[in-house]
UniProtKB/TrEMBL annotation:
InterPro entries: Homeodomain-like_sf, HTH-type_Tx_Regulator, HTH_TetR, TetR_C_40
Name of the molecule in the record: TetR/AcrR family transcriptional regulator
Highest taxon of source: Bacteria
Signal peptide as annotated in the record: none
Keyword check for Repeat: no
Region listing for Disordered, in residue ranges: 1-20
Ranges annotated as DNA-binding: 44-63
Pfam families recorded: TetR_C_40, TetR_N
Keyword tags: DNA-binding
Annotated HTH tetR-type domain residues: 21-81
Amino acid sequence: MSTTEEPAPAPRENRLDRRKARTRAALVAAAGRLLAEQGRAEVSIQEITDAADVGFGSFYNHFKDKNELFDAAIAETLAEHARLVEQATAPLRDPAEVFAASLRLTGRLRRSHPQMARILLHTGLPYLTSDQGMAFHALRDLRAADAADRLDIGDPQVALACTGGALLGMLQLLDARPDLDVDAAACQLAVNLLRMFGLDREEAHRIATRPLPALP
C-alpha cells in the first residue's frame, strides 16, 4: 500500500532574518532621503548609518559600498513610481489617455509624493534608457498608442527621450518654482507632447484635461 508523504513545511523566517530585513530596509530608506535632499551626494557611510539608526558595521552586511546602496534606493523608487502610475491608469482604455495620464500623475508627484519627485529629478536622466521603472513603462505606453494608431511616435527610443527629457524638465521647473500650479503645468506638458505625437490641439486638450485618478 502506497502512502502519500506530507510536504515538508516551509522554513519559518527566524528573528535574525527579520532583523536583517529591517536593517536593509532602514539603510535603503535613509539613502532615499539623502538622494531626495542632495542627489548622489558625497556623504560618509557613518552619516548613512546614523540616518538609518543602525550600527556602522551593519552596512557591509548588506552592501559593498555606497553606490550599491544608492542604486538599490533608486531601483526601489523607480519600481514604486511605476506601480503607482500603473495602478492609477489601469481603468483607462485609450492608449493616448494612458500616456497623458501617466505624465500628469508624474507631474503631480511634487505635491503627492515629494521625496519620490526629488529622487526622480536628481537621478532620472541616466534611467531614460533603463529596462525597468519609469522608462520601461513609458516606452510600453508609447508603443501601445502607436500600435493603436492613436499617436505617431516614429522611433520609440527617440520618442522616449523626448518624453523623459520634457518630464524631467517640468519636475525641475516645479521644484524651482513652488508657486506654479502643478496641475496646469502637467496638463500643458501632456497637451504639448500629445500634439508633438500627432494629435490636433482640440483632441490633445480634451484628453489632457479629463478627470484624473489620485495616486494611491
